[in-house]
Amino acid sequence: MIPAQFDYVRPADLDEALKILTEREGEAKLLAGGYSLIPLLKLRMAQPGLLVDLRDVTGLDGIVETDDDLRIGAKATHRQIHENPIIQRYPLLHDVSGGIGDPQVRNWGTIGGSVAHADPASDWPAALLAANAKVVCRGPTGERVVAAREFFLDTFTTAIEPTEVLTEIRFGRRPRGMGGAYTKLERRVGDFATAGIAAIVLLDDGGTITMAGMGVTGVSPSPYAATDAEAALQGQRPSEAVFRAAGGAAAAKSEPASDTRGPVDYKRAMVAELAVRSLRTAVERALANN
Amino acid sequence: MTTQHISVTVNGEVREADVEPRLLLVHLLRDVFLLTGTHIGCDTSNCGACTIHVNGQSAKSCTMLAVQADGAEIKTIEGMADGATLHALQQAFWDQHGLQCGFCTPGMIMQAAWLLDQNEKPNEAEIREGISGNLCRCTGYVNIVKAIQQASGQLEAGEAAPVEAAETVEAAPAS
User: Fold this and answer.
1) How confident is residue A190, by pLDDT bands cut at 50, 70 and 90?
2) Strand partners, B18
3) Is A263 touching B (CB cutoff 8 A)?
4) The domain made up of B4-79 is a member of CATH 3.30.70.20
5) Looking at chain B, which residue has its C-alpha nearest residue A4?
6) How far is CA A65 from CA A71, A169, A170, in A?
7) Which of A53, A179, A204, A229 has the smallest count of CB within 10 Å of its CB?
8) What residue spans define the domains of chain A?
9) Does A7-53 match A63-172 in CATH topology?
């Protein structure tokens, strides 16, 4: 399969990239690892007039903790994230980054590329939604911080403007008593998720859930935050009954399509089950982090 | 149509070409440089037959543009043997019958080489995870795993590998 023709530029820095995006507004696509975009180019589902290769744009792949948050640069690869020492303390992000695609995909695919691509079955969006992460976009007039819950608008559609570059993802720092987990069902290793559930819980000293976040991928036009499930967990002590109630609420909000990965009822049942499994693990990890 | 001038080091040799931006790296290798050891299997980033190394990292060359490799060090299956002496992985695939039709083998060997660069003595689970982006439709992977064990000094040529229980597939009941 051969992509349609396009122009190609390789800006030296972010300012030059932004200038190009403004000059050719609406025509350009950004290229980082390429593992999301190039398959679309080959299928001619995407036919941009211009490809802007970010390989020479430096300073976009850092992974740092500040006083307030954990910041992951858009060009950090899944593998760099998975192996980073800081990420070993963020089990949800460790789970997600280690399970995307296969080793070759993780060598080249980037968090920013995956988030900007917004495939409805991709893994990162579930984690960003569960963690209430923030997406940083740089445009011609400066930086804009968008809540993940306002970022994923529809299938392959996000809140990024055509003149903006996604530069960074920000997660809250992990406090004591917080644990997270990502569980997904794949037909085989490397397949897109049939369903995937990211969960985060925060327990107080008495063991009560004081905050819960849940993001669901693969079973709707766009990944979603399971807000009813979060409400069902809030203020509860962890138990199988509470997890089941939350799983049921997460599944009720799903809009799966019947396809080769299974019929609608099966996918709904899987959302409920995977939610329970993610919550069990998240609670275990929260207790271990007390 | 505009072309881009690129320069890449392939198996230690500097090669230059004027390419359309849309040219895939695998096509540069096969059609321009005539290095046809790198195979195109699925052409959709699934099968791993086109796996090569770009700056030391394994990559699916059907999912990379030739222009993205400008200035890069590339290693393909043609760069593995030392003259008539096979690379340890090539020898091990031979000894352990790690191939039947051979179509996946170049990608499988390049991915295995990357894996052993990261982890000198991977256990069986790590080997299977390491080659999870490479599909083989003939062997059922058992002999490929053995070959990688041999190449990493964990199995002698001709030695029967311990087959772990998890791999044993129960025979389907007669119906």
Assistant:
1) confident
2) B5
3) no
4) no
5) B22
6) 6, 12, 9
7) A204
8) 7-53, 63-172, 178-288
9) no
pLDDT higher than threshold 90 for residue B157: no
Q: How many CB atoms lie within 10 A of CB A157?
A: 12
Q: Which residues of A touch B115 (CB under 8 A)?
A: 103
Closest Cα in chain B, distance from residue A208 (Å): 37
Cite the beta strand spans of chain A per DSSP E.
7-9, 28-31, 50-53, 63-65, 69-73, 134-139, 142-147, 152-154, 157-158, 165-172, 178-185, 195-203, 209-217, 224-225
Candidates B78, B79, B48; CA nearest to B63 is B48
Q: Which residues of A fall within a CB distance of 8 Å from B107? A: none
Q: Does domain A178-288 correspond to CATH entry 1.10.760.10?
A: no
- Reported ipTM exceeds the 0.85 cut: yes
pTM of the model: 0.94
Cα dist. B82→A11, B108, B156 in Å? 39, 19, 21
Beta-carbon separation of A39 and B44 below 8 A:
yes
Cβ of A13 under 8 Å from any chain B Cβ? no
CATH fold label, A7-53: 3.30.43
Burial of A223-241, coded b for 16+ CB within 10 Å and e otherwise, reads bbbbebbbebbeebebeee
Q: Give the mean pLDDT of B156-167.
A: 62
Shortest Cα distance from B16 to chain A (angstroms)? 18
Give A99-112 pLDDT, tens digit per residue: 999 999 999 999 99
Predicted local distance difference test score (pLDDT) of residue B161:
57
Mutate to test the interface with A, among B40, B47, B65 (most CBs of A within 10 A): B65
Residue of chain B whose Cα is closest to the Cα of A108 = B59
Q: What is the pLDDT of residues B94-110, one digit of tens each?
A: 999 999 999 999 999 99
Q: Say how many C-beta atoms besides its own lie within 10 A of residue B170's C-beta.
A: 5
Residues shown for chain A: 290
CATH of region B88-151: 1.10.150.120
Q: Is A50 touching B (CB cutoff 8 A)?
A: no
Q: What is the DSSP letter of A48?
A: -
Among residues B6, B115, B15, B49, which one has the least CA distance to residue A55? B6
**Mutation for B interface: A104, A108, A114, most B CBs within 10 A:** A104
**Cross-chain CB nearest to A104 (options B21, B60, B67):** B60
Domain map of chain B by residue range?
Answer: 4-79, 88-151
Nearest CA in chain A to B24: A2
In this structure, which topology does domain A63-172 adopt according to CATH?
Answer: 3.30.465
